[in-house]
Amino acid sequence: MTDLVERLVPDELWVLFRRVVPPTEVIRPQGGGRRRAGDRACLAAIIFVATSGCTWRQLPPVFGPAWPTVYRRFAQWSRDRVWARLHRVILDELGARGALDWSRCAIDSVSVRAAKGGH
């Protein structure tokens, strides 16, 4: 594991992430194929893309998995609602530590067109 992966996904975050990511079964009927890319390296690469502004194709090879693998993992985790569950787990953890200042929170809403003119 590279220093960059450890910096982007510190042990404390990794422990929380493992609580919300669904287990993966790797089935290789013939016993061959490549070893599945590590979730921690993929998570670090996803965080890098999200925070650096680079595209998936610009992902540096230092993470290990190639960009298509990282993107597929991101898409799968998005379908599995991993990000929403991780957000909740992090908030719960911070709340338990007394590290949240709810006096500074913001509530966001979605605007939806009212049916029949709102009547």
From TrEMBL:
Entry keyword set: Plasmid
Look up the domain of life of the source: Bacteria
Q: Which Pfam families match?
A: DUF4096
Where in this chain does the record put each Insertion element IS402-like domain? Answer: 10-87
List residues traversing the bilayer: none
What is this protein's record name?
Transposase
